[in-house]
User: Which sequence fits this backbone?
């Protein structure tokens, strides 16, 4: 019988996980060696729990990962229909996997913290990347800062479709006044991955800048988040 090298030892390709050596099984390996010892596929196998008659949970997860270049960011952008199309992935397993990915995304959002000082567009991108980088739809966020440019709050103010989202300036500035913000940073994502601003982006930025000026609130930047890159209105001299 052929053997397949897993990167975590050797496992017989068609043998059920329960017949593997104890320290090669994902659950036992987790208990014996800790969560950091598991590969991405092994962690996914723990989440979905089982494979199919012809394929172990681990092999199924390897196949899913291979379809997105073993890239968890790309996996996080896959929809329910894409993942459930793999043989052995029913709705329950698909939902469990997507729920785990969403928990990871929310943890990243929270771990960025709120007691952060923004000194550059890179700081703003680092704060907002986990909120906006793996979405299949557009969202618009605002970061509210005090006079020292320390983050007071950050909040989603609009959610739209694949190509646009409608932003109400009244909501943006009502929240700014409620937070006692002296400055704000705007941010939204482009699901296409491209980050060049559209004419609509330019018009909205000008409109919000004018509104901010009337309220004596500084508009420091507008960040567009794409695939592992961003565009800064401030850096490009567009504010």
Assistant:
């Amino acid at each position: 019988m052929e053997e397949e090298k897993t990167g975590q030892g050797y496992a017989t390709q068609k043998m059920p996980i329960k017949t593997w050596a104890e320290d090669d099984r994902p659950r036992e390996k987790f208990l014996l060696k800790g969560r950091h010892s598991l590969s991405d596929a092994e962690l996914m196998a723990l989440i979905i729990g089982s494979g199919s008659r012809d394929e172990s949970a681990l092999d199924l997860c390897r196949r899913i990962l291979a379809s997105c270049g073993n890239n968890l960011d790309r996996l996080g952008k896959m929809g329910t229909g894409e993942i459930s199309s793999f043989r052995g992935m029913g709705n329950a397993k698909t939902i469990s996997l997507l729920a785990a990915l969403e928990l990871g995304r929310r943890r990243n959002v929270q771990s960025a913290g709120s007691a952060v000082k923004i000194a550059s567009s890179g700081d703003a991108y680092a704060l907002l990347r986990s909120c906006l980088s793996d979405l299949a739809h557009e969202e618009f966020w605002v970061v509210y800062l005090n006079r020292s440019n320390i983050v007071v709050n950050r909040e989603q103010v609009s959610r739209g479709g694949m190509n646009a989202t409608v932003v109400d300036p009244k909501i943006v500035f009502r929240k700014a006044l409620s937070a006692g913000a002296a400055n704000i940073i705007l941010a939204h994502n482009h699901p296409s991955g491209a980050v060049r601003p559209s004419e609509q982006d330019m018009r909205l930025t000008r409109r919000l800048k004018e509104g901010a000026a009337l309220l004596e609130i500084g508009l420091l930047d507008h960040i567009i988040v794409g695939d592992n890159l961003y565009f800064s209105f401030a850096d490009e001299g567009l504010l």
Observations:
- Strands lie at 3-5, 10-12, 139-145, 151-159, 183-189, 218-225, 230-232.
- The first strand starts at residue 3 and ends at 5.
- The two ends are 66 Å apart (CA to CA).
- Residues 173 and 212 are 7 Å apart (CA to CA).
